[in-house]
Design goal:
Structural class: alpha+beta
Oligomer: single chain
Distance between the termini: 72 Å
Radius of gyration: 27 Å
Order of helices and strands: HHHEHHHHHHEEEEEEEHEHEEE
Largest sheet: 6 strands, mixed
Helix content: 25-40%
Length: 327
């Protein structure tokens, strides 16, 4: 264990520290008991007691990317790995004879190890993907018809296999799997990129793409002050809220969630600064109803849209009226 951690948790210098797995197991216990924010909330309370955070203080909200600890998989690799993990879980749960009846021998043997795809050309990949789709459908149908189907269908590995199969294949009325040519609109936020982390998503922001998550971060936004000697004193700001979210979903839908979490802790800001992705008329109005002034740049008008651009309207602020240029 490094010296900084020993000092932070009050250990003597020659203490061997804890095993690296202890931290992971501790996190699992916190999550299981809904205590994952306990230490963070206790720290915020102490900061408030010390006067370092005040109620109704100006704050800002923004998101950053969280990289998943995973390898990007092709469609074939993703489906084959989903099959392998589902078969392994079923084999662990069922008696050997029962498992062998459920999964045909050619399927069991093919997905025992990771499927090698690095030497395949495009035609071979498509053939193997169609074949894997047929194997996945066969296994899913057999699981659904099993005497213990109510237990097997809720296994995480089986549910992940079904989701991966459905994002790559349609099923004809005759029951044959057909490879989809493209992802239907709106399915990106639910698209699994690896069965080893079924919640990780591909996303892109400001020209940077990644697979993982987003982290919504709210922090105080004090400005630098001028000291007695005329020098500029940098402000010390503190994080007041964090939330891990789906990387493929728009930031805007988390605007009100962040405000609501701050309200529950008593840290609702009078002003919340955000970037353009969090701003809409509806969000500004809803934030105002909660006592928060939502400040951020308005979205640029859509040049291809049929609607009249907002800058052409005459705005009467006092009368709360907008006059259309076309009457």
């Amino acid at each position: 264990m490094c010296l900084a951690w020993k000092i932070a948790i009050g250990l003597v210098l020659d203490d061997p520290g804890f095993h690296f797995s202890d931290l992971g197991e501790f996190r699992d216990r916190l999550e299981k008991n809904n205590k994952e924010r306990a230490a963070f909330d206790a720290l915020l309370k102490k900061l408030e007691e010390l006067g370092l955070i005040q109620k109704h203080q100006k704050q800002r909200l923004d998101a950053t990317h969280v990289l998943g600890h995973l390898r990007r998989l092709s469609r074939l690799e993703c489906l084959a790995e989903s099959m392998r993990l589902a078969l392994k879980r079923l084999a662990d749960l069922l008696e050997e004879a029962d498992f062998e009846r459920l999964a045909p021998v050619e399927i069991r043997e093919l997905y025992t190890d990771e499927l090698p795809t690095h030497n395949m050309d495009e035609q071979a990949v498509r053939r193997s993907l169609r074949s894997a789709g047929g194997h996945a459908l066969t296994l899913l149908e057999r699981v659904a018809g099993h005497s213990k189907s109510s237990e097997l269908l809720v296994l995480e590995q089986v549910k992940t296999l079904r989701r991966v199969f459905e994002q790559y294949f349609d099923v004809t009325p005759e029951g044959a799997p057909v490879l989809k040519t493209k992802t239907p609109k709106g399915e990106g936020k639910d698209r699994i990129v690896t069965p080893h982390d079924a919640e990780a998503r591909w996303s892109e922001k400001r020209g940077k793409d990644w697979v993982g998550y987003k982290l919504q971060v709210t922090e105080t936004a004090d400005r630098p002050s001028v000291g007695a000697d005329g020098s500029l004193q940098s402000a010390v700001n503190f994080i007041t809220d964090i939330a891990v979210t789906n990387a493929a979903e728009a930031d805007a839908q988390y605007t009100q969630e962040a405000i609501d979490r701050l309200r529950r802790r008593g840290f609702v800001p009078e002003e919340l600064a955000v970037d353009q992705s969090y701003v809409s008329g509806a969000h500004i109005a809803e934030a105002a109803r909660k006592g928060v002034l939502l400040m951020g740049p308005a979205a640029a008008p859509n040049p291809n849209g049929a609607a009249i651009p907002q800058e052409l309207f005459s705005i009467d602020v006092a009368g709360e009226e907008a006059v259309c240029p076309q009457g």
